[in-house]
Design goal:
By secondary structure, this protein is an all-alpha fold. Helices cover about 55% and strands about 5% of the residues. It contains nine helices and two strands, in the order E-E-H-H-H-H-H-H-H-H-H.
Length: about 210
């Protein structure tokens, strides 16, 4: 009998519209572009798309809200950039709802952490932000999720509070959560990225004088 053909290894890279090929198991910062991140996140729906409105409430729009919350209490552009990119890996792997992440187990977290680290290195951030910064971003993430759950995803106020905490410490404008067309959110995400990047460069220049 002829020897069996060797199996072709499975493809573990994702091709981006920029032409980059990002390896999910060994992501390189050189294969990461902000245009790809913005494009992908603007088309990934939060809550698996189970939200009210003519448009999906995208991960990109959620990220803009989280960055705005963090910016209120932290002027450091590095950490505002970290907030904007806190869900960056989802431009590759999608937005997995929390129950499904629990089903997938720790392997999902390993892949997500590798992608997040590569994204951070690409844009001059530490692979892991300080614990105090991570907490501020997480608190902002939960605050946004509370509003999204209540305004868009059909949760009662009591359910939203039980799952995501209270909103008493920081009231948000409900207009932030009006789902917008993907192309507009993509543009806003890129513009905000460049604004923060410019502020970061200016801060570095002033600090070196």
């Amino acid at each position: 009998m002829p020897a069996p053909r060797p199996r072709k290894p499975p493809r573990v890279w994702q091709r981006m519209l920029s032409g980059r090929r990002l390896d999910l198991l060994d992501p390189s910062p050189l294969d990461i572009e902000i245009a790809d991140i913005a494009h992908g996140l603007a088309r990934v729906a939060r809550w698996n798309g189970q939200t009210k409105g003519d448009h999906a409430f995208s991960v990109a729009q959620h990220s803009l809200v989280v960055e705005e919350i963090v910016a209120r209490g932290d002027p450091d552009p590095r950490w505002r950039l970290a907030a904007l990119l806190h869900d960056g890996p989802e431009y590759v792997i999608g937005d997995m709802i929390s129950p499904f992440k629990s089903v997938l187990g720790p392997d999902y977290r390993v892949i997500e952490a590798r992608l997040q680290g590569a994204i951070h290195r690409r844009f001059g951030l530490p692979a892991a932000v300080p614990a105090s910064v991570a907490k501020r971003i997480k608190d902002a993430d939960r605050l946004s999720a509370h509003y999204e759950a209540k305004l868009l995803a059909g949760f009662t106020a009591l359910e939203a509070r039980a799952l995501f905490g209270s909103t008493r410490r920081a009231a948000l404008d409900e207009a932030l959560f009006a789902p917008r067309p993907a192309h507009l959110v993509e543009r806003a995400f890129v513009e905000r990225f460049h604004q923060i990047e410019a502020e970061s460069l200016a801060t570095q220049r002033n600090g070196s004088r």
